[in-house]
Structure to design on (414 residues):
């Protein structure tokens, strides 16, 4: 098993690695990892051997590999995979949007309730029935759910997501969701974008 | 014609009225209007008679009515009407979203290029061909355009909008638009919402 002081250093390594990933750095040395954190590079190497991460002498460690090792170990994994429920107009537009890839994000499973939609394929993925949500989310360890169903269905879908282990919900349905305190909700209201634009126009006319 | 000092006070009234509209206030007196602006209520009444706005003694003026009078006069009107080009998945989801109404915003005309879509109706409005954009935008004096077409078509559509007199563009296509300096562009990237949510998850796990 892993000594407690090592376990407490791992989230610091993880956070630093994520910053590197955002800066598109792909290889780092144990000295790099220890530098900003005030940890001796030999200690970093010892820590990383506990979960089998092997650096190549003179080259270093692969950032992506360490992130996935550490993520697995810290149980933080799967912050980059999401599922979506409600594959209507908005859901389809979100599923086929290429803009998520640059953030390392991807929508890995689609759900709906309409028999005409369930079973069809979107970008090669089959649309599942929402009744299968809980066990699919549990199996894939998905932590992020996207809600694009009509407002009156949204609470029921949120309850199913939480039952499956979803810890963060991106909600488009214009309604307030009630979920346990530890579940994060981000409600999106596109109208704010249009209102802001309109406001700029007025401001420009008045200046 | 309207005296210059009156003309200079009108935008101040207009800005104040807009704030009231957002606060859902529907009737105000000349004393209310003058109060925060340090203008005598008799002067406000004289100013407002120049364009025929009549307050009802003891009751006041209707906020909406004054906004539309002043908007017309100041040429700022139509900051609440938008047109949309590209009625595919995202476009349809935006057209049928009820969230714009509370901001006093509405999408008044839809355009597409696909013969299967042009001529069909969405919420009772006929979808026009994009070739009719310039003259319809000019006729309706529309100032806001929404772009929900594929990235490779977006610049062409932006040029048509600017030619029609559009002064603010809400762009969803993942591409950089080149427009004259006085045209405002707001580019929306929904991926930021998902990335932020994912980031919260990581931060929560690390705390
Ligand atoms: N927040 C925003 O800015 C914004 C913008 C546009 C639309 N919306 C909202 O997004 C939602 C979707 O809009 P749309 O235009 O795509 O609607 P839509 O009717 O085209 O799609 C809704 C889909 O949800 C499915 N569905 C319904 N109940 C379900 C359930 N219990 N489980 C699984 N699937 C279910 C339907 O079968 C349909 O495919 C609406 O709530 C709408 O108000 C929000
Ligand atoms: N910014 C974001 O967050 C976000 C999210 C989802 C989708 N998108 C983008 O929005 C756009 C639309 O996505 P979608 O899923 O609705 O695509 P879609 O293919 O379903 O719809 C595009 C529509 O535009 C029409 N069109 C094409 N060229 C045109 C032209 N020159 N004039 C008028 N209409 C034209 C097509 O006929 C079609 O109806 C894409 O650029 C997509 O990348 C952005």
């Amino acid at each position: 098993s892993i000594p407690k002081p090592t376990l407490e250093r791992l989230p610091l390594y993880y956070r630093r690695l994520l910053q590197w990933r955002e800066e598109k750095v792909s290889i780092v040395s144990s000295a790099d990892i220890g530098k900003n954190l005030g940890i001796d590079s030999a200690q970093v190497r010892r820590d990383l051997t506990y979960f089998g991460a092997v650096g190549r002498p003179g080259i270093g460690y692969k950032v992506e590999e360490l992130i996935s090792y550490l993520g697995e170990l810290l149980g933080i994994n799967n912050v980059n995979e999401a599922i979506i429920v409600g594959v209507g107009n908005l859901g389809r537009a979100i599923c086929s949007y290429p803009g998520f890839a640059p953030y390392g994000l991807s929508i890995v499973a689609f759900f709906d309730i309409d028999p005409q939609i369930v079973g069809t394929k979107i970008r090669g993925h089959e649309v599942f029935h929402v009744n299968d949500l809980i066990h699919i989310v549990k199996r894939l360890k998905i932590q992020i759910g996207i809600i694009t169903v009509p407002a009156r269905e949204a609470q029921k879908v949120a309850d199913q997501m939480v039952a499956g282990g979803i810890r963060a919900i991106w909600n488009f349905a214009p309604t307030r969701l009630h979920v346990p305190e530890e579940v994060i909700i981000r409600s999106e209201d596109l109208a704010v974008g249009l209102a802001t634009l309109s406001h700029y126009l007025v401001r420009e006319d008045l200046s």
The two ends of chain A are 67 Å apart (CA to CA).
